[in-house]
Amino acid sequence: MIKKLFYLAFIALGVTMAVPSLRADLNGFVKPYVDDMKARYVPRQLRSMADQLDARLRRAEGLPASDNFSGWLRRSFSGKETDPWDNFYYIRATNRDYYVGSMGPDGEPGTADDITEPPRPLTGEASDPDRAGR
User: I need a labelling partner for 89 at 20 to 30 A (CA). Which of 48, 64, 101, 131 fits?
Assistant: First the structure.
């Protein structure tokens, strides 16, 4: 019985993918769930990125320039240089701190769906006591 239900579901999915209007409906239904799964992945990437940048700051190498951040990601970051929506991650720095981020699902910077790591001091030291020693 379960095997027949699996086959039926597989056939229904195949028909849905073959008919463009049904495929668009399915994409519209599934997209929010897929974006939510992608958004859960990004903070770990940003944390890893910021940890590598902190190590760079502790070695007195400075931050990569924001206009060449994608180059640093490509050359030196241990993860992928783009977020799950295929947009490049970005870095913003002030005189005291910096943060890294993703433009989120809409691909536009400075909107409500942006995902960022909390600002970190330019000293390369963890500002959160829970992160000290990691």
Answer: 131
Query: How do residues 32-69 score in pLDDT, each as one tens digit?
Result: 777 788 888 899 999 999 999 999 999 999 999 888 89
Q: What is the structure's pLDDT at 27? A: 63
Residues paired with 100 in a beta bridge: 91
Instruction: State which amino acid sits at residue 15.
Output: V
Contact 103, 62 (CB under 8 A): no
Contacts of 118 (CB under 8 A, 6+ apart): 99, 127, 128
Token pair of 74, please?
A: 């490509």
DSSP state string for the chain: -HHHHHHHHHHHHHHHHHSHHHHHHHHHHHHHHHHHHHHHHHHHHHHHHHHHHHHHHHTT--PPPGGGHHHHHHHH-SS-SB-TTSPBPEEEE-SSEEEEEE-TTTT-TTSTT-EEPPPEETTSS-SSTTTTT-
pLDDT < 50 regions, the chain: 129, 131-134
